[in-house]
Amino acid sequence: MKIVVIGGTGLIGSKTVAILRQGGHDVVAASPNSGVNTVTGEGVKEAVASAQVVIDLANSPSFEDRAVLEFFETAGRNLLPAEAAASVRHHVALSIVATDRTDNGYFRAKLAQEKLIEASGVPYTIIRATQFMEFLRGIAESSADGNTVRLPPIMFQPIAADDVAANVADVALAAPKNGIVEIAGPERASFNEIIARYLKAVGDPRQVVSDPAAGYWGGRVEERSLVPLGEARPRPYRSRRMAPPLTGTSLRLQPRCTH
Ligand SMILES: NC(=O)c1ccc[n+]([C@@H]2O[C@H](COP(=O)([O-])OP(=O)(O)OC[C@H]3O[C@@H](n4cnc5c(N)ncnc54)[C@H](OP(=O)(O)O)[C@@H]3O)[C@@H](O)[C@H]2O)c1
Predict the structure, then answer these.
(1) What are the two backbone dihedrals, phi and then psi, of residue 181, each rounded to the nearest 5 degrees?
(2) Is 58 in the pocket of ligand 1 (CB under 6 A)?
(3) Ligand 1 centre and the CA of 102: distance in Å?
(4) Residues near 37 by Cβ (< 8 Å), separated by ≥ 6?
(5) Whose CA is closest to atom 30 on ligand 1?
(6) Does residue 89 contact residue 1 with C-beta atoms inside 8 Å?
(7) In whole angstroms, what is the distance from residue 96 CA to residue 43 CA?
(8) How many CA atoms lie within 13 A of 129 on its CB side?
(9) Which of 67, 71, 193, 225 has its CA 20 to 30 A from that of 203?
(10) Ligand 1 contact, 31 CB (< 6 A)
(11) Which atom of ligand 1 lies nearest, measured to the CA of 12?
């Protein structure tokens, strides 16, 4: 099966490409460096021609509110009509849990991406994942105030990139759901507890404090703003490997593994 992975050189993209290639599929890892740019439209038509499945794992180079919205809207408007014209059988995209009930600029952009997919006429599955464990450092940095990291008192359930990629590959090989599936990590705990454990594991002395006035990337959040409301998809976690900074035994964030 020919599968095109847009953003196939990124964190999740490169892992997904490797899994699918191991499964014997004809996988194209597409990105601007390989001449496929979903923002300018360069190479898009050619890349998706004769593909059965397109997986969109691209990310915006800028997270500034307007830039990220423009990225996902422009990319969707270039990519989805090209897929429709090529009769692509399944479009898979990776979004974020709670894009429709948590307000910040990045989530608004991902929601706009989802809406374009739903309206495209291309059979699709949207996977909403919780935050990647590999993103914990970025979260700590963005919430740092001197030697203190201020976080809102909310629940958190990060997932390892290896597990995200395994789920994306599974979904891509299954029939389109024409709907949304949610995936989350194996452990739900308070935001400050997980970030404190992460900082300790990487030897970062900063103190984490719970601050009801703190937001998440500039948006107001409540207790369950970042976690699935129901049970997240109990998918097989294929990988027992953890992200490098999280291998510390004190973290106890092992992925559930059903086989
Ligand atoms: N961070 C989280 O916690 C989280 C949670 C849930 C969902 N997500 C979503 O997961 C997806 C993948 O994230 P990631 O961290 O794996 O991304 P990443 O590592 O930043 O990789 C981004 C990829 O997008 C490609 N790209 C950038 N601009 C492009 C363009 N104009 N056209 C085509 N490709 C382009 C990059 O190509 P180059 O290598 O050539 O630059 C790279 O392959 C994103 O859509 C993100 O919204 C993230």
Answers:
(1) -120, 150
(2) yes
(3) 21
(4) 43, 44
(5) 37
(6) no
(7) 27
(8) 25
(9) 225
(10) yes
(11) 16
Cβ distance 251 to 196 under 8 Å? no
The CB of 13 under 6 Å from ligand 1? The reply is yes
pTM of the model: 0.91
Q: Are 82 and 115 in contact (CB under 8 A)?
A: no
Q: Which of 39, 59, 130, 133 is the pocket-test mutation for ligand 1 (most atoms within 8 Å of CB)?
A: 59
Give Cα separations from 65 to 68, 215, 257 (angstroms): 6, 15, 37
The token pair at 39 is 């923002």
Question: Ligand 1 centre from 64 Cα, in Å?
Answer: 15
The span from the CA of 35 to the CA of 31, in Å, is: 6
Q: Is-contact 83 119, C-beta < 8 A?
A: no
pLDDT in tens, the chain (259 residues): 999 999 999 999 999 999 999 999 999 999 999 999 999 999 999 999 999 999 999 999 999 999 999 999 999 999 999 999 999 999 999 999 999 999 899 999 999 999 999 999 999 999 999 999 999 999 999 999 999 999 999 999 999 999 999 999 999 999 999 999 999 999 999 999 999 999 999 999 999 999 999 989 888 999 999 999 976 654 545 544 333 344 332 232 333 332 2
